[in-house]
Amino acid sequence: MGLTDGGIATPTLDREAPEIIHRVSEEGGGYTFARMVSAAASDGDATAAEVAREIAWEQLHSGPWHSVLPIWRDAYSMACLHVAKHHFAGGDFPETLKVLDLGLIMGGSLLRIDLENAVEKVMAVAEEREKSNNNVGGDGGLLFSSVEFNEDEVFQLLPTKSLSSKHVARRSELSLEGFLRDYYMLGLPVIISDSMSHWPARARWNNTDYLKKVAGGRTVPVEVGKNYLCSEWKQELITFSQFLERIQSRNTCAVPTYLAQHPLFDQIKELRKDILVPDYCYAGGGEMRSINAWFGPGGTVTPLHHDPHHNLFAQVVGKKYVRLYAASVSEELYPHSETMLCNSSQVDLDNIDDNAFPKAKDLEFMDCILDEGDMLYIPPKWWHYVRSLTPSLSVSFWWSNPEGSP
Ligand SMILES: O=C(O)CCC(=O)C(=O)O
């Protein structure tokens, strides 16, 4: 029996479909969607499946994300599964994967298990095909080579006064007790070196052949533009292979493409196997809130902002500059007044306007260069500015206590 035999199995969808169709018609006014998706299920109508997916997509983009009715997210996953079945039956595996990924990224949680199992099946089939075509990997190109790193050139791009004042404390072999006593309880940042050498990611992620093999065909959301506070900033969906090509081909004048703050490891299980949640995250109690990827070329900038959670920020490949300001100086950093941006500073560290923001001028800060294998603990509400100095792959672990306060 071949791997494609039997098509894509969707046991959860088969069980939940009547309820989703009922709710999307009753709560969401999705009568046309219900008709189309029913035709896709009963008659195998590929066009109807695609129309249903477009209707759900429109609904997901009809207003701010938080105002989208949750049932439309499950409806979107449902339509994606139907469309994927058709592509799979036609042997179009890249398109099948793309549609399944869109379901994982944009869809609800109800049908996630079917989407994940389908991805696994498609990946297995695609791998079989590669093998039978005798496609062997490339030569394992490096994403980042320290030989090419020109410190003098790169350091010129840092904000003024960088690396001239207080450095973040650096500790190796830091015990959990030491971490809790000297940093977590006091609300102070620290770099913990040499505590992730056992992660498979440390040995694997600097190899573009490996990344392409486990994730190349997957679709991921990326940000294109100087940073999220700029007007020309936009989001795109591209394959991970296309993303890696952009990282590698990037010339310094082009705007960076950044895979930022994305729960990539919920989406791509192979990459999740390469990282481990550090014990430090559980030392003071609390719950993991999210594990996010921050992957990009040299030159990405995350402007000065703060987050409500504890953050252990792991630098896996490449180097980053990080500047930190204590939570206590918030007012002097001129937070934006709009609710959506109130955790971001109006002060652009790459182009500081002393006249507009005089209080920020002489504020004390700490900074550091994060190297491969370093983890930086950022306490809740500490302001941070991050600039990648090379192609860079980092992972953030955000946690907080069950009541939601740090
Ligand atoms: O790496 C970056 O660009 C930003 C990381 C960050 O802001 C975070 O982990 O909270």
Automatic annotation (TrEMBL):
Cofactors named for this entry: Fe(2+)
Principal location listed in the UniProt entry: nucleus
Domain JmjC: 266-406
Gene3D superfamilies to which the protein is assigned, alphabetical: Cupin
Subcellular location: Nucleus
SMART domains in the cross-refs: JmjC
Example GO molecular function: 2-oxoglutarate-dependent dioxygenase activity
GO cellular component: nucleus
PROSITE patterns the UniProt entry points to: JMJC
SUPFAM superfamilies: Clavaminate synthase-like (SSF51197)
Keywords recorded for this protein, A-Z: Dioxygenase, Iron, Metal-binding, Nucleus, Oxidoreductase
Family to which the UniProt record says this protein belongs: Belongs to the JARID1 histone demethylase family.
Protein name: Lysine-specific demethylase JMJ30 isoform X1
Species, as recorded: Spinacia oleracea
Gene designation per UniProt: LOC110801981
